[in-house]
């Protein structure tokens, strides 16, 4: 696909001591677009597109057949291929009857995001700042690997969950992303990955800006299109959705998605977890574990993300408590040394404390993996997204 790009600075740097703004982040003057740009083709998976066509006058079977053809035509090409034509002639060539043309041609097939900035890291990670049609700024992170490239995907502009270690949470929530805006992050990143060479983009993690479970309907619709074998063809096992632990959405997630689930835990007890993750006031660790035990499908496992903070949650006794908590759940624990964030008191542990914690946890028989930071030097590592945008906000008058 052709990458719409507008290279420019986002905003001037603030004066020292300026407080962070909230709703301002991501706001810019809207980019002029065509009149039909409000209705996006990428906002539809095959099922919702079939329903649109059924309302346009088609039978249920005809609507499903046309939706399958359209999804394959619009989204099934390999990365870097020319944009497929989108007009009455192209639809007729697909075998789509005239009865469906008006409804389909009212949908805009073009990407709804444009590249505002590329921030390459020394480790080859690439932080992307993408501008939506209303001017909102969204960040995604492209992480190359030896066998496959991963994209860290955003689900909201900002986040309402206010975790103490997260730059995005400090900004507050501006708005939800539509399914098409989620899909378009992948469309743009896949094309960039193809341009850069190396391993293809095959892994998606919803660990960017926002809490995916607070926008679950649009996230699920995007995942259905991204994993559709007629469209983007991502393997469901290579799509992971991360939540801070919104326990009442766990059952609907497993019921409607084949993707993997990651839960951000980050403390071994309620008191410490609630101090850094306000969600724990509503969903205690016991309630979270009960929801997981009740909803986890047979043969599936959950990933626990445990961000390690120096002398806060990294003692050997904390590893013991964590092992006791995850006991009985089919799981893996990803231990993540924290990255510089909004609270300077939360610092990464020494290598010795990290190694001791991991050894103690593994000694309890817990499958454990250390996730090393990627893209930290450009604000693209875990907990850092939108931090650069915050630092570049205009100073208040």
State the main characteristics.
transferase; two-stranded antiparallel sheet; 397 residues; TIM Barrel; globular; alpha/beta; 2 domains; disordered C terminus; 31% helix; ten-stranded mixed β-sheet
Per-chain topology:
Elements: H1 46-55, H2 60-75, H3 88-93, H4 101-105, E1 114-120, E2 126-131, E3 137-143, E4 149-152, E5 156-159, H5 167-171, E6 172-176, H6 179-196, E7 201-206, H7 216-226, E8 239-243, H8 250-256, E9 260-264, H9 270-276, H10 285-295, E10 302-308, H11 316-326, E11 331-337, H12 351-363, E12 368-370, H13 387-391
Parallel strand pairs: 4-7, 7-8, 8-9, 9-10, 10-11, 11-12
Antiparallel strand pairs: 1-2, 2-3, 3-4, 5-6
Helix pairs in contact: 1-2, 6-7, 8-10, 11-12
Description:
There is one protein chain. With about 400 residues, this protein is of the alpha/beta class. The protein folds into 2 domains: about 45-105, no CATH class; about 115-390, TIM Barrel, CATH 3.20.20. It has 13 helices and 12 strands. A 10-stranded mixed beta sheet has the order 1-2-3-4-7-8-9-10-11-12, with helices on one face. A two-stranded antiparallel sheet has the order 5-6. α1 (about 45-55) packs across α2 (about 60-75), α6 crosses α7 and α11 runs parallel beside α12. The longest helix has 18 residues, at about 180-195. The protein is globular, with a radius of gyration of 22 Å. Residues about 5-35 and about 395 have low confidence and may be disordered. Its cofactor is [4Fe-4S] cluster. It is found in: Cytoplasm. This is RNA methyltransferase. GO terms for molecular function: 4 iron, 4 sulfur cluster binding; metal ion binding; RNA methyltransferase activity. Belongs to the radical SAM superfamily. RlmN family.
């Amino acid at each position: 696909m052709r990458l719409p790009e507008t290279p420019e600075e986002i905003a001037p740097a603030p004066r020292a001591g300026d407080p962070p703004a909230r709703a301002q982040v991501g706001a810019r003057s809207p980019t002029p677009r065509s009149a039909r740009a409000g209705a996006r083709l990428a906002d539809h998976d095959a099922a919702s597109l079939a329903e649109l066509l059924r309302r346009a006058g088609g039978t249920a079977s005809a609507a499903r057949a046309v939706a399958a053809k359209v999804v394959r035509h619009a989204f099934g090409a390999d990365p870097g291929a020319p944009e497929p034509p989108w007009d009455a002639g192209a639809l007729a060539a697909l075998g789509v009857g005239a009865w469906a043309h008006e409804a389909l041609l009212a949908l805009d097939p073009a990407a709804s995001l444009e590249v505002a900035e590329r921030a390459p890291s020394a480790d080859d990670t690439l932080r992307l700042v993408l501008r939506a049609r209303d001017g909102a700024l969204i960040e995604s992170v492209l992480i190359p690997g030896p066998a496959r490239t991963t994209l860290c995907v955003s689900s909201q502009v900002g986040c309402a969950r206010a975790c103490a270690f997260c730059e995005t949470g400090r900004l507050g929530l501006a708005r939800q992303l539509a399914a098409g805006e989620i899909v378009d992050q992948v469309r743009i990143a896949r094309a960039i990955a193809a341009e850069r060479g190396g391993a293809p983009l095959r892994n998606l993690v919803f660990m960017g800006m926002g809490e995916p479970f607070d926008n679950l309907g649009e996230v699920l619709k995007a995942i259905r299109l991204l994993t559709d074998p007629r469209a983007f063809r991502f393997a469901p096992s290579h799509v992971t959705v991360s939540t801070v632990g919104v326990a009442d959405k766990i059952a609907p997630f497993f019921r409607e998605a084949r993707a993997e689930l990651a839960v951000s835990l980050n403390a071994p007890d309620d008191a410490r977890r609630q101090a850094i993750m306000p969600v724990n006031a509503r969903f205690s660790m016991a309630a979270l574990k009960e929801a997981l035990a009740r909803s986890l499908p047979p043969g599936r496992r959950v990933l626990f993300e445990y961000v390690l903070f120096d002398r806060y949650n990294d003692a050997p006794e904390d590893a013991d408590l964590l092992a006791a908590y995850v006991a009985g759940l089919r799981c893996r624990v990803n231990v993540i040394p924290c990255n510089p964030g909004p609270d300077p008191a939360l610092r990464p542990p020494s290598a010795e404390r990290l190694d001791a914690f991991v050894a103690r946890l593994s000694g309890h028989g817990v499958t454990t993996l250390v996730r090393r930071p990627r893209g930290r030097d450009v604000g693209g590592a875990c907990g850092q997204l939108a931090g650069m945008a915050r630092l570049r906000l205009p100073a208040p008058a």
